[in-house]
Amino acid sequence: MSFFYLLLQLIAAILVAPLFDGMARKLRAKFQSRIGPSIFQTYRDLLKLIKRGRTKSHSASFIYQIAPYLMFATTAAMFCALPITYGSDAVFAQFSDIFVLIYLGALYRFMFIIAGFDTANPFAGVGSSREATIGFYSEAVSIICLIVVMLGAGSSSLPHIASIVSLSEGNYGYLVPSYAIASTAFLWVMYVETGRKPYDLAEAEQELQEGVLGEYCGKDLAIIDVALMLKQFSMLGFFLMLFEPWSFENPLLSLLLFLAEIGVLYVFAVFIDNFGPRFTMNKGMKRTMLFPFSIACIALMLYIIGV
């Protein structure tokens, strides 16, 4: 039965993610005084891409062909590692670990970067470099926050952390200042990891921010798009499991609650996406990433002094 709920968790995310993406596109258009596409437009886009065949650049190697499937498998495994429909007594609880998510996230980023470089497209190369730079900064902040949480909880197991943070037990959580401060920096990093702005030039968004995928089309692009949406769910879910682990005993109710929480975070992300400032990469890193890095360091210092 646990495997059934785990499979249901993954299928629900794959089916709902395009709807959330369509709602985000519609909301973004409303903020910009446009009509915007239908909330089901992302489904139509994916179906149209799946019907098309595969193409391959003459300069690309086998990495180009296997990257979409590896990226999808990695993000699917990341999402399954989130203890949404199962607890610490389930068979999959050993797989649900912070280190598992860290390494799967690193594998996904590695595949994303080398897939861009492998095409020999100059825009893809620039996009891959930007992705590597963002990862260099964001992973440092997230690791510091995770160290605070793991040391405070005494475990790297997500089900264990979720159980002691939940209101039912309440012996670790927002009453601990280091934990509360770390949650702020971690939420900001997870927002960056979902591929949102402000790290781009508005007039060159497609070439720079999404240039990594410039050579992909058809079925491959559809698989990558689903993988990107699953990664967004996984990153936001990672934050929810650590800092807002609300759940019910019924797995279906827990899954519905999780999707509702993801929907709320999507709305906040679109709001920041539209009304937040835009920076070039260097200015963005200096003005925004140093801030969460400082907060994460403060959280670590508070933990060290026992606060």
Automatic annotation (TrEMBL):
This is NADH-quinone oxidoreductase subunit H. One of its GO terms (cellular component) is plasma membrane. It comes from the Bacteria. It is a multi-pass membrane protein. It comes from Sulfurospirillum diekertiae. It is found in: Membrane. InterPro entries: ComplexI_Subunit1, NADH_UbQ_OxRdtase_su1/FPO. Pfam families: NADHdh (PF00146). Keywords: Membrane, Transmembrane, Transmembrane helix. The keyword Ribosomal protein does not apply.
